[in-house]
Specification:
The radius of gyration is 13 Å and the shape is globular. Strand 9 and strand 10 (103-105) form a beta hairpin. The N and C termini lie far apart (40 Å). The strands form two sheets. Strands 2, 4, 5, 6, 9, 10 and 11 form a seven-stranded mixed beta sheet that branches. A four-stranded antiparallel beta sheet has the order 1-3-8-7, with no helix packed on it. The chain has strands at 4-7, 10-12, 18-24, 33-39, 46-52, 57-59, 67-72, 77-82, 91-98, 103-105, 109-113. By secondary structure, the protein is mostly beta strands.
C-alpha cells in the first residue's frame, strides 16, 4: 500500500511563503516522477510542478520563478516551496507519485492566500 501524506498548507498573506511536504511510504526513487497538482473550486485539477526520477523539473507557467519542487531521498519526501504567493494560488494541493502503470495521490492540503 503506497501512501502519500501531505502537510504544510494553511493561510498566508499575498507575498508570503509556504512549504508543502509529501511523505511517501516507500523509497521515492522507485517512482518515475512525482509532482504537485492543485484544484481550485470550479476548476480542473492542474499540474503545478513535477520532478522526474532523473531530476528534471517542470512548472506551470503561472508559478515559474516562484515555486520550487525538490526531493529528499533520506526522508522519502518531496517538497514544494512556494514563494511570492498570490490569491490566484488558492487551491487544494495534491501530491502525486507516478509509475508507468499507476498514479498515487495524497489526501490534499488547503492553501489559502488572502489579505
Amino acid at each position: 500500500q503506497v501512501q502519500l501524506v501531505e502537510s504544510g498548507g494553511g493561510l498566508v498573506q499575498p507575498g508570503g511563503s509556504l512549504r508543502l511536504s509529501c511523505a511517501a511510504s516507500r523509497i521515492i526513487f522507485s517512482f518515475n516522477a512525482m509532482g504537485w497538482y492543485r484544484q481550485a473550486p470550479g476548476k480542473q485539477r492542474e499540474l503545478v510542478a513535477g520532478i522526474t526520477s532523473g531530476g528534471r523539473t517542470n512548472y506551470a507557467d503561472s508559478v515559474k520563478g516562484r515555486f520550487t519542487i525538490s526531493r529528499d531521498y533520506a526522508k522519502n519526501t518531496v517538497y514544494l516551496q512556494m514563494d511570492s504567493l498570490k490569491p490566484e494560488d488558492t487551491a487544494v494541493y495534491y501530491c502525486n507519485a507516478h509509475t508507468y502503470s499507476t498514479d498515487y495521490w495524497g489526501q490534499g492540503t488547503q492553501v489559502t492566500v488572502s489579505s
